[in-house]
Amino acid sequence: MSDQTLSNLSREERRFDPPAGLAADANVKEEAYARADSDREAFWAEAADRLDWGQKWDQVLDWSNPPFAKWFVGGTLNASVNCVDRHVDAGNGDKVALHWIGEPEDDTRDITYSDLKDLVSKAANALTDLGVTKGDRVAIYMPMIPEVVVAMLACARLGAPHTVVFGGFSADALASRLADCDAKVVITSDGGYRRGSASALKPAVDEAVEKTGDLVRHVLVVRRTGQDVAWDDSRDVWWHDAVDGASADHEAEMHDSEHPLFVMYTSGSTGKPKGILHTTGGYLTGTSFTHWEVFDLKPETDVYWCTADVGWVTGHSYMVYGPLANGATQVMYEGTPEKGRWWQIIQDLKVTIFYTAPTAIRTFMKQGREIPDGYDLTSLRLLGSVGEPINPEAYIWYREVIGGERCPIVDTWWQTETGQILISPLPGVTAGKPGSAMKALPGVAIDVVNDEAQSVGNGNGGYLVIREPWPAMLRTLWGDDQRFKDTYWSRWEGLYFAGDGAKLDEDGDIWLLGRVDDVMNVSGHRLSTTEIESALVSHPKVAEAAVVGAADETTGQAVCAFVILRESAGDGGPDIVEELRKHVQKEIGAIAKPRQIMVVPELPKTRSGKIMRRLLKDVAEHREVGDVTTLADSTVMDLIKDKEGSAA
Ligand code: WTA
What we know:
alpha/beta; Rossmann fold; GMP Synthetase, Chain A, domain 3; 7-stranded mixed β-sheet; 5-stranded parallel β-sheet; globular; binds 5'-O-[(S)-ethoxy(hydroxy)phosphoryl]adenosine; AMP-binding_CS
């Protein structure tokens, strides 16, 4: 974001007060900030008390060996019991947990908490029969069908950490994740529905399993589309054979509060994805409490819908663990946002709380308000946004067109690493400003600092950091404590560095400015420039590659690549650009496919050999190229711009 846009943003004068009714009846009121400030640990202990524990903790936080935190030390609990059994035991077994909507019209399932308990227990028994025991890792590579939730909760029940890999990732990406966390079992489906047709998933699993030698013992396959699949009798097991007939009784063991719950891989600023480790007690406390707090959830009456795919952290924290621990009734939709389908779902199921990403909102804005205007959206009472900064235009459109000017918007900032929302308005307290995520939630210590780690103070910009541990924080990177320290805790002593730039306005409210490292944000998905560069360079025709995230009206940022071909490749042939785009798709997945690839003779480098991505970004965003004086060869940019001219 340029300084110009930034100063425009900070002059935003519109304020939206919480609706009076919501404010009066809000789950969390203003006093929470002061209460949390006076005793942070007591505040989080109270949040943890909302869960069912086997054994209560002896110590709220052990921070004696930073940055390795332990929360609710000595406590035991089971995440699956908290998300399922306890609601059944409380007499809410008949309550709908999931209104599942398939992509094909009329393909729907309502799953109550009792149903869910039976399904999860059966799946836990089936996984046990396949040899899964506490501590084993299980990979999940599935579409948005109820079985993915069942699979996650069954793993949690057994204490077998799951790693959900987004179904849009390639076989190679899946293989590297399987290998990194030593997954013993993969749960998948034959395929899923996307944009009206069945697309296969199992072949990618077969390829990934092949690549990882004899690591994976079993592949458990849900039949979703009925398409033909290759089958290996010694390894593959149909879900309906293994799970349907299994016993619906499963005695859940209580796990240590710090027992690993899941590993979620995310892009970092180097090529290798990082396995973010979340554990049980703190994660479940942080996600369930903030879900109740930020969305003001009233479990008896609300119908909640988070549109995120379960392959991302939002799907984990605010579709599976947070809402289910709170006993919410929610919508789960298999498809992608097609025209009026979302609004139809909101109308039909009378959704009251809706949580989505700015990129989706901008897409709908482009299609025009006539589409949502054709539906009755008056059931909505609260809207949420996540994944990237929401620009004021999108905020206002969301508020007016979807929220009918009644619904507060909670712009929630957090990360795979933070596990839970850390910055957000409180819907019953905060007067929202379009474009600002406002303040740290009660119990969370956020700051904006300069290069010397000093607070910048109101009216200034800098780096977003976190000063105190929080319950759902990542505990480490899977198998790599050193990288965990280096990545997040080494820049400044005792501060967690989030990788985002931010500004405090005159009121002290926070404006997120996007990443300051080599991570791009495309449609709210994190992609690493280095990872895509390595993918490009792994192509035999490519000598060197540089990737930048260029501003894009719909997706926030778009992947733009500059490549130098090997001499042996000549001019690469007429289809070189398409060939390279496909190659990236194969290596990482369709979301990483560059929007634009330019074949160039040289890349702009400093004298020390560092690629100056800033200049490439100028080209990709069609701007006047900035200062080139630090380039080793200042004529390089002319060569690149010539290329651009001839390509345009
Ligand atoms: C960005 C997604 C501005 C930010 C939950 C962060 C945001 C990265 C917001 C994490 C927001 C997320 N406003 N930026 N409300 N929410 N981000 O790990 O750059 O996929 O560091 O987690 O998304 O992305 P991740």
